[in-house]
Amino acid sequence: MNHHLPWYWRAGSWLLALLLFTPVISLVVEALVPAGELFDHLWRTVLPTYIINSVLLILGVGLLGAMLAIPAAWVMANTDIPGKAQLQWLLVLPLAMPSYVIAYIYTDLLEFAGPVQRLLRAITGWESAADYAFPEIRSLGGAIIILALVLYPYLYLLSRTAFLEQSRSQILASRLLGCSPLQSFFRITLPMARPAIITGLALMGMEALGDFATVSYFSVPTLTTAVYDTWLGYGNLSAAAKISAMMLLVVMLLISTEKYSRRRQQLYQKNTGQEQREFVQLSGWRKWLALGWCWLLVTLGFLLPSLILVDYLITHFSTSWNSELFEYSLNSLMVSGSAAVVACFIALFLGVYQRLKSNTLAKIPARLVSTGYALPGNVLAIGVLIPLTLSDNVINELLITWNQAPVGLIFSGSVITLVFAYVVRFSAVAVGSVESSLGKVSPSLDMASRTLGCNPQEMVRRIHIPLIRKGLLAGLLLVFIESMKELPATLLLRPFNFETLATRVFQYVSDEQLEYAAPAALVLVLVGLVPLIMLNRSLERQELRQEQK
Amino acid sequence: MKKRLSLISAFALSSVLFLAQAASALAAEEVNIYSYRQPFLIEPMLEDFEKQTGVKVNVVFAKKGLEERIEREGKFSPADVVLTSDMISLFDLMDRKLVQPVNSKTINDNTPIHLRDPNNQWFALTLRVRNIYSSKRSDKPVDINYEDLASAQYKGKICTRSGKHPYNIGLVASMIAHKGEAETKKWLEGVKKNLARRPQGNDRAQVKAIKEGVCDVSLGNSYYFGKMLENKDQKAWADAVYINFPNQKNFGSHVNISGMVMAKYAPHKDNALKLMEYLSSEKAQTIYARDNMEYPVNPKVSVSGTVASWGKFKADPLPISDIAANRIKAQRLLDEVKFDL
User: Fold this and answer.
1) Cβ–Cβ under 8 Å, residues A479 and A340
2) Is the pLDDT of residue A88 over 70?
3) pLDDT digits (tens, 9 = 90+) for A385-403
4) pLDDT band at B154 (very low <50, low <70, confident <90, very high)
């Protein structure tokens, strides 16, 4: 259905989209500049390995993530195992762990000098590394495990919501028609949750592709590393941009897989209003398996690393405590908070635009905005620098022509760059969240509201926003957490004397002495916890409402 | 809902104020540094400089990409002085023409002629030797050379950080300068064959690996040895190795530099000059030598006691610019032999 939106809505949507697309465009333009024969050289030597590693990383993280998240999500949505109230939110917490922190901690734990191998040697009497084979944590496999551990909550959150929103009547019907519980899971539950699952997998895939900190800590060369090396090592931006363009292609592919997977699906929430939410009763080994699985995830992804951080804090308190911690925290909070608010505003604006103008053209702005997610932080940094420094230079030149004093780098030299970079990088998360919530609002509501005399703005305010509040909040919180943890772009783009929790922590991680930044790392994790718990609360309330129905 | 909205708008307002305040934080008497050198190292000097001159120092710290940032910022770049931790980025800045000559008798008096640019564009601040560390499980090797790392006796016994790290690129570039590309490539292939594990971690991590028995020799900069001896958690690693100065019987040990340049469009030239003169002064050089165990360039400053105990050594006399000229070739060779893969 096509609604008449005020002109500024369309203009604003396109303007915002193009603004956020400038970094990508800048890179594409750079990619078109001939790179000399360096690109061929890379292609002949290292690039194939980089590509293979990136593909394996995405597939591995996706597969392992799905194995971790989907069972946990199903258990949380459909059973009432003991401690569910706590597990429900504990399972989300690994999202608050920056991957570079957890990578460091597990390396410390599992490497040769770490407690695990020490214990092993003490028991077996082995002496040196030559005596036995222990899987190397600093490897592609290690990176897959670490990334899956911190990224699975995306999939968990999305699929849990999907499982919760499923009407029980279909499952009951399938059971009546003779399906076993397992059969009805694979034939009804899973296919109905497919859009959410694929969205979750696509998010994880993009995060894995864009990861820089973990793979560089583990010395696993991927496309992200390749871009970095080509740009900064060889000083060849255009070859680097060509590699980034390849990565963009991969992400477009991921995004379109997600869209394609639900091309013929129009699922609207249809609650009969008379359903009783019934939990599957688990008993015996099933119960213990479910419990064990969920607690394993929580322990490996959050509890254990947090405990180790606390241990670092206690052991190294005197040398690591720093009175500037408050300042770093405030910096992190403000920049990430601003980015989250801006990203959600944009997501809402574009989401509504594409819903109300149901032609293909109107879908473009939201897609343009989402491409930024494809850019690894370090690539994004180049992409952001190009348009911002350009506009700064134009402004200053103009001022000089008009005999005014130049104002300096008002965009690229200030925190505005960071906010812009985070919004470009993470608004896809907000857009996705808003889109999927809006998608579930039946169009009949739009029609009804219009029939009852609402204009489009009123409809958005009175129908859409209240209905998608949860999705909006989820987007806000996720963008916030991601921005808090963001590293490579922050490192390169930050203004003078500006330190965030993430930059502080990474400085010590890269020096292999995270122990001395334990307070900052803990604050980083704790600050991430608050929004996560809020996010989960809002999901729980929805569950409660469904139960009450 | 209302409450949440007003909360969000209150937050938005405070962020705007915060952003505005952060943008105007830069004061009048100041100097702006873009630094590759780590905060904990240069902060003591900068504080001392501030106290001495009353000039406020602003710093952006980064690990990579500052050249690109300065280039993009163009003539409105706020950068006054760039501090680098190796010759690679120093010469990248030169090649991109992002620097300007500094004519200061003070700096020239403080810095030997072979450690600064003939056109006064770059100045070394400290020297760092690329040493070979060897396990104490064997005897201290006599006259070990970089070339030996490719020989069969070290098969499966070598550890190193990424070949693409500027310190290793510097070493490979110097090998190219001495032996030509073809021979250096053969050497790199040999070293790669001898690696005990895929290149990973930093220079200290390699020494740790020697202690653990993962390997017997590693490449590492000189000051790490001193820093590890000082660190209670890492002393045991350092105690497990000898520090060796390679190639003493031929061209000498490869020496990298940390350095400084004045940015081409430096908005605070006078203060930048003051800062650069300060960094070459005895006072700052003493801090470099004492706190980070590097070799100071200022001949009036002596090395720390620990560093002195390693003895004198012959440094590669090749001009730094001749070595740095090979840095792209070095990277290509490292890719060709797939050193890190």
Assistant:
1) yes
2) yes
3) 889 999 999 999 999 999 8
4) very high
pLDDT tens digit string along B261-320?
Answer: 999 999 999 999 999 999 999 999 999 999 999 999 999 999 999 999 999 999 999 999
CB contact under 8 A, A338 and B15: yes
The whole-angstrom distance between A100's CA and the closest CA on chain B is 14
Nearest CB among A491, A492, A495 relative to B22 is that of A495
Q: How many residues does chain A have?
A: 549
B190 or A217, higher pLDDT: B190
Question: First and final CA of chain A: distance in angstroms?
Answer: 30
pLDDT in tens, A436-477: 788 878 888 888 888 888 887 788 888 888 888 888 888 898
- Two tokens, residue A95: 């999202």
What is the rounded average pLDDT of the residues B35-60?
Answer: 93
Tell me the C-alpha distance between B323 and B178, whole Å: 9
- Check whether domain B31-126+255-308 has CATH 3.90.190.20, yes or no: no
Question: What six digits make up the tokens of A262?
Answer: 């639900």
Is the CB of A413 less than 8 angstroms away from the CB of B78? yes
Beta bridge partners of B33: B59, B81
Q: Cα–Cα distance between A106 and A117 in angstroms, integer?
A: 12
CA distance B335 to chain A (A): 6
pTM of the shown model: 0.88
Contact between A496 and B65 using a beta-carbon 8 Å cutoff? no
- Every domain of chain B with CATH number 3.40.190.10 lies at 31-126+255-308, 128-254+313-336
Domain B128-254+313-336 in CATH: superfamily?
Periplasmic binding protein-like II (3.40.190.10)
| Nearest-CA distance A211 → chain B (Å) | 17
CA dihedral A74, A79, A82, A88 (to 10 degrees): 40
DSSP element (H, E) containing A318: helix A317-320
The DSSP-derived string for A187-207 is IIIHHHTHHHHHHHHHHHHHH
Q: Which of B172, B200, B228 to mutate to test the interface with A (most CBs of A within 10 A)?
A: B200
- Write the single-letter amino acid at A178: G
B-interface mutation test, from A118, A212, A219, most B Cβ less than 10 A away: A219
Which residue among A138, A378, A406 sits closest to B200, beta carbon to beta carbon?
A: A138
Cross-chain Cβ contact A219/B69 below 8 Å: no
Is the CB of B23 less than 8 angstroms away from the CB of A415? yes
In the numeric block, which tokens belong to residue A171?
Answer: 């499952």
For residue B172, give how far its alpha carbon lies from the nearest alpha carbon of chain A (Å).
14
The burial class, CB within 10 Å (0-12 / 13-18 / 19+), for B325 is: middle
Q: What is the mean pLDDT of residues B128-147?
A: 95
Residue A470, Cβ density class (10 Å: 0-12 exposed, 13-18 middle, ≥19 buried): middle
Distance of CA A85 to the CA centre of its chain: 24
